[in-house]
Write the structure tokens for this entry.
Amino acid sequence: MLRGGNTHGGETGEKKTNNWDVFQEVTEIFILVPAVLGMKGNLEMTLASRLSTAVNAGKMGSAREKWMMIVGNLALKQLQATVLGLLASLLATVLGWMAEGKMPFNHVVLLCSTSVSTAFMASLLQGIIMVAVIIGSMRMGINPDNVATPMAASFGDLITLALLACCGQWFYSLTELQPYVLYLVDMLILCLVPLWVVIASKHPDSHIMLRTGWEPIITAMVISSIGGLILDKSVSDPNLAGIIIYAPVINGIGGNLVSIQSSRMSTNLHLNFSPGEVSEDRRSCHMPCSTFFGSGANHRSAQILLLLVIPGQLIFIYTIHLMKGGHTFPSLLLTIAFLSASLIQVFSLLCIADYLVHWLWRRCKDPDSYSIPYLTALGDLLGTALLSLAFLILWGIGDMGSV
């Protein structure tokens, strides 16, 4: 958007362009950030987990079966992304109205167009990438669980956040000049919904998910939106505005790590047990510490994933420092608070995942489709809440250096 400059000393000031006016003028878009990022992460990681399990179980042997499964799942994902993108914008509208007491109609249209367009484009692009990664892993003899799920989480956050920012700013620039473009985009994407339904119903697995796979992703979107509301209220406070830089990092890392663990446990159950059956040690009451102590592969992977939190987050803190110009390092207290919040988040998520995956399996529900949406949404909520608490503590003791 062009804004008039000031005139000094008889000279006409230049018009300045603020590339991200949308985040200043339509603050409800912050509610969309965790919801859309979490939603895309859910869909991508669920797809990666399902296809990885199919590869390990030998269900993608013939070329025909392989491509029917891939096309059916991609169509299902496009359908889910479109519907959830629309629901996420409506939920952001309601939460924004409840928080502010008002919601201009042009903001509603902008949120809807941004959310639906971001979800559609990100889903299509990331789905193609995931299929390529899984097929490549098959040919190279690599376990897709160790490659596809973390790549889905990492690429999903980066691509979706970039598309959300770019689409939001582009639509914002059109709201006054060519507002009809927003309506045309929404109508075009929504008109494709029947096509995705027809394609997804062609394969038995995607047909089943077409009827039963909505509960976890819609519930997860609602949970993530609550985290988005916390983020929106935190950003509106000048003392906590710096949280917007760190929120995607803590939420992304937590979701990535717990999704890897969930996918590995799900594959192990598919290969070794019939639905409804679990090992003897899982039939008694689950204790949180048992997630990390034992001789099984899942115990070792949980330990490794928890140990990855500190070095991984230190790398991201340093990256944020470089992106901000590299002039001042984050204070020691800020680093300790951020790492503590990350450790608590990932420890909690890994314990919840250990219980949730086996609980779903005992009830004959596929953890590949049900566990990841819940876990990543809880990761968004926990991460945002813990980070807000950490920043409040830092503000309370007067240490907000380099935030």
